[in-house]
Structures are given as C-alpha cells and as structure tokens.
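2024-03-11 09:14:02 INFO worker-7 job=invfold-0412 stage=load source=structure_tokens
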C-alpha cells in the first residue's frame, strides 16, 4: 500500500509539473522538430552516397534519440533538481529509500516517453514525407527492455550530482554520449554491442521495416542482460555516492 501511495503521489506531482511547464515543453519540442526538419532536408540536398542515411532512417534515429534522452535525463535530472532546490535531505526522510523514489519518478517519465515516441514517430515521418514503416509492437518491447541501461547511466549521473553537487560538465558529456550510443554501428553483434542501448538502437534502425521478435529471442535476451548490467552498476555507483555524501555531511548542500 505504501508503494501504491508513493506511485500515486509521484504521478500527481509529475502531472502537476507537466501542466506547470507545458509552455516550455511545447516550445522546446517545436525547436527540436524544426532542427530535425532542417537536418533532414539538408541531408536530402547533399549528393547521394552509400554512407548517407535515408530520410526514414534519419527520422527513426531522431525518435530513438529522443526516447534515450528522456530515459536518461529523467532520473539524472531529478537528482540535479533536488540538489538545486535544496530538497534532497527532505526527500531522504520519506518512507522509501531515495533510489526507490527516483526510480518511481523515472518509471513514470519512461511511460511518458513511450507515449511521446508513438506521437513523435508519426510526426517525424510526416515531416520527411514518408509513411511510418516501423512495426510498433516490437519497437515498444525492445525500447522497454533496453530502457534500464539508460536508467543505469542516469543513476550514475544522479550519484555524481548528489556527491559533487555541480556536475554540469559531466552531464553535458553524458548527453552527447547518448547521441553516440544511438548512432553506434552495434548491429549485428560486435564489440560496440556491450555499450548501453547501442545494440537495441542499431537493431531497430538496421531492420526498421522488417523489425520482428520472431526468432530473435536470444538477441532480446542479450539486450535485457545488457540493460540489467548497467542498471545494477548504476545503482551501485549511486549508492556509493549517496553514502559518501552522507558521511561527509554534505547531502543537503548545494
């Protein structure tokens, strides 16, 4: 019951924030879509080459990047906001451990990101004048299975924010790293497949119109194992940083 009450309270808080910052969300979304449109039509004007992505692949890559950024930033941004607002210590005295609260918040944001992915998928393909050719059910399943790896990265960033308070430079590098993870040629399986989310993103982009889970259960299991590894690693790093901040007595400092 306590967990249900926590989930309900966090959902209400999330909805309140969405209403409060609706203008910023709409404005930033329009700016990103305008930047994508400029990129897509700029690529179309370039001479055709084998290494150049098709517009549909570019649209799908943009959608995957948007989801990955939301999944990573969801939990990383929560810790940073609590540190800036000097509310981290108050959050630590609730009935659930801080990582659990952050994970619940991240879960809600991932659900929102998945819903946004379905909308963005159609919008981006409409921008480039293509019909959506990506099978949605396997796309959503793969994203859900791979998302914990991004949560793990977010937990690492959250731990750094809790311990060092000001880690904007590292966060900027991590956000750039998310772009690299989505664009890494990690399919079929190679050394790059050990990176978080990379193999899942490359699998989706490479198979795009023929994306299916039939006969791909071993690959999906690999994606799940990769995601769990980074999630556990992220939880370990966050826990170590959290304990170090409490030992220093700087948990509530900015």
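2024-03-11 09:14:09 INFO worker-7 stage=emit residues=254
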């Amino acid at each position: 019951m306590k967990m249900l009450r926590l989930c309900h309270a966090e959902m209400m808080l999330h909805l309140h924030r969405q209403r409060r910052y609706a203008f910023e969300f709409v404005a930033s979304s329009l700016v990103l879509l305008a930047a994508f449109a400029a990129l897509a039509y700029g690529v179309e004007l370039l001479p055709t080459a084998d290494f150049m992505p098709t517009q549909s692949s570019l649209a799908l890559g943009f959608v995957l990047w948007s989801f990955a950024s939301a999944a990573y930033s969801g939990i990383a941004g929560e810790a940073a906001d609590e540190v800036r607002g000097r509310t981290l210590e108050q959050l630590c005295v609730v009935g659930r451990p801080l990582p659990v609260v952050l994970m619940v918040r991240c879960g809600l944001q991932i659900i929102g990101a998945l819903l946004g992915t379905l909308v963005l998928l159609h919008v981006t393909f409409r921008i480039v004048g293509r019909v959506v050719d990506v099978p949605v059910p396997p796309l959503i399943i793969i994203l859900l299975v791979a998302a914990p790896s991004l949560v793990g990265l977010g937990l690492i960033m959250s731990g750094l924010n809790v311990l060092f308070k000001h880690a904007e430079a590292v966060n900027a590098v991590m956000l750039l790293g998310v772009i690299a993870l989505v664009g890494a040629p990690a399919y079929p399986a190679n050394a790059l497949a050990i990176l978080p989310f990379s193999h899942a993103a490359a699998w989706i982009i490479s198979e795009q119109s023929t994306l299916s889970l039939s006969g791909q259960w071993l690959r999906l299991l690999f994606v799940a194992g990769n995601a769990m590894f980074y999630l556990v690693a992220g939880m370990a790093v966050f826990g170590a940083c959290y304990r170090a901040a409490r030992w220093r007595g700087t948990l509530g400092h900015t």
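2024-03-11 09:14:09 INFO worker-7 stage=report msg="The two ends are 34 Å apart (CA to CA)."
2024-03-11 09:14:10 INFO worker-7 job finished
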